[in-house]
Write a structure and sequence with these properties.
Helix content is 38%, strand content 22%. It has 13 helices and 21 strands. Bound molecules: 2-aminohexanedioic acid. 2-aminohexanedioic acid binds next to loops.
Length: 486
């Protein structure tokens, strides 16, 4: 059996483990196994499913320190953020467990007497999931917990950069009482992902990753049969800073939003759209703070900035920064590789601030997925919002101002799934929907009460206990001159 190694991105000689390169026939077996286990799970009452999910949350909490350490080692997130990743999964468990005792549908009064109308949810069978490495515990939890609550079996293909984190998460689920056969993990690169996307036994596919892969996966999933396909793709998130903003607050937000997770969040702040009157002082403050960030081994609690995921990512980021400079941007800070002690072979990219960026520059339009902040100066609020909206993504945006009217006008006009006021573009909370507009996704939302929608089908039920034929739209609203049809 072919295998691949998962390595520590800060020190690639540190091997986390060896994992099977799953093939299409492994995916076949996984779908069959999850599919066989699913009907029994679907017969477990929803609140009892919720109790198992709650138990998984409690187990994750008891394992938080070791899991955070694994996230730091395998995905390169600094310990603080690695803990946040695990916490997001714990929060998700408790939120979804709560949903198990909440509304499961809607009831509406019928237009006819002695007739009941309601909706309920049914599982889709087996859900296929393809997840990224940057939230290697949280994102599987956003998908697996609601899919389980809905009564499904699951086959998940985590990123080849974070297989151990996914196994550890699924291990907590099965230790908490989720039947082992119900959640199958396949590993590897393109082959198992493609096989999962087109498998006839997969009733819904949930993908988080890049736009090109998402498009290909969704197209093939639909070609081989319509099914639920949910996509959570990239972002090109902007922070708008108005002249009346608290600049210290905006500095904190920009540094955390742009350089947190080394800029490798879908929600990372990659554009700073600032009024020219405050651009100079704001950039000075951000640069000063960027220079103070300590790059290092993410498992070292003193590190502020971890590595990017691999050398290829480093090359891509460097090339985008070079292009920006060629297009006329100025490097205010960074734009170089860093070599922290003890991190031999790891790729670290300095927190980078580029000024003089124009809306049509590539660096202002394409996702970087690295610690790079492009600064654009725009005076008028409406023009700033136009720049926010000028990209093909619509995940997250922020506006910093002390004026309520400015804040709410921006909230109204920004085309994005998530808008923050006086807070950075990262940091979404579990009880609210997460997702974006335009090429960021295809309309589904993760987390929040709607998180279950991509993993279940709504069934509308009508019960007529009148004992006679009653005709909606006809009996109570006859059309004059049309007769009554009897
Ligand atoms: C992602 O980057 O893929 O809002 C998810 C945030 C996190 C989730 C990010 N809670 O930044």
């Amino acid at each position: 059996m072919a295998t691949f190694a998962s390595v520590n991105p800060a020190r690639p000689t540190d091997v986390i483990g060896s994992f099977p390169s799953s093939t299409a026939s492994d995916v076949d077996r996984a779908v069959a196994t999850a599919g066989e286990a699913q009907p029994a799970w679907a017969r477990v009452p929803v609140p009892a499913r919720g109790e198992i999910i709650a138990a998984a949350g409690t187990l994750l909490a008891s394992r938080k320190v070791e899991l955070a350490d694994l996230v730091a080692r395998e995905a390169g997130k600094i310990l603080l953020e690695a803990g946040g990743d695990v916490q997001e999964a714990i929060d998700m468990a408790h939120f979804v467990a709560g949903q198990s005792r909440a509304a499961w549908g809607e009831t509406v009064p019928s237009e006819l007497a002695s007739k009941l109308c309601w909706t309920t949810r049914q599982p889709v069978g087996v859900v296929g999931m393809i997840t990224p490495w940057n939230f290697p515990v949280a994102i599987p939890s956003w998908k697996i917990f609601p899919a389980l609550l809905a009564g499904n079996g699951i086959v998940i293909k985590p990123s080849e950069h974070a297989p151990a984190c996914c196994e550890a998460f699924v291990g907590a689920c099965t230790d908490a009482g989720v039947p082992e056969a119900l959640v199958q993990v396949v590993h590897g690169h393109a082959e198992p992902g493609a096989a999962l996307a087109t498998h006839p036994g997969v009733g819904a596919l949930s993908f988080t990753g890049s736009v090109p892969t998402g498009r290909a996966v969704a197209a093939s999933a639909m070609e081989s049969g319509p099914r639920l396909v949910s996509l959570e793709l990239g972002g090109k998130n902007a922070m708008v800073v108005r002249p009346d903003a608290d600049l210290d607050l905006a500095t904190d937000g920009a540094v955390f939003g742009a350089f947190g997770t080394a800029g490798q969040r879908c929600t990372s702040t990659s554009r700073l759209i600032v009024h020219p009157d405050v651009a100079g002082p704001l950039v000075d403050r951000i640069v000063k703070r960027a220079a103070e960030l300590v790059a290092g081994d993410p498992t070292n609690p003193r590190a502020d900035l971890g590595p990017v995921i691999d050398a290829r990512a480093g090359e891509r980021i460097a090339a985008m920064v070079d292009d920006a400079v060629a297009e006329g941007a100025t490097v205010a800070h960074g734009a170089s590789a860093l070599h922290p002690d003890g991190c031999v072979g790891g790729t670290f990219f300095a927190p980078t601030v580029l000024t003089g960026v124009q809306p049509d520059h590539r660096i202002a339009r394409e996702e970087v997925f690295g610690p790079v902040l492009a600064v654009l100066e725009v005076a008028d609020l409406a023009d700033a919002v136009d720049v926010v909206n000028s990209v093909e993504y619509g995940l997250s945006a922020a506006v910093y101002t002390s004026d309520i009217g400015t804040a709410l006008s921006a909230v109204d006009a920004i085309d994005a799934g998530i808008v923050y006021v006086n807070a950075p573009t990262i940091g979404a909370e579990i009880p609210l929907p997460f997702g974006g507009t335009k090429h960021t996704g295809n309309g589904f939302r993760e987390a929040g009460t709607r998180g279950i929608e991509q993993f279940s089908q709504v069934k509308t039920v009508y019960v007529d206990y009148s004992g006679r034929l009653q005709r909606a739209q006809l009996d109570n609203r006859p059309t004059p001159g049309a007769g009554d049809g009897t």
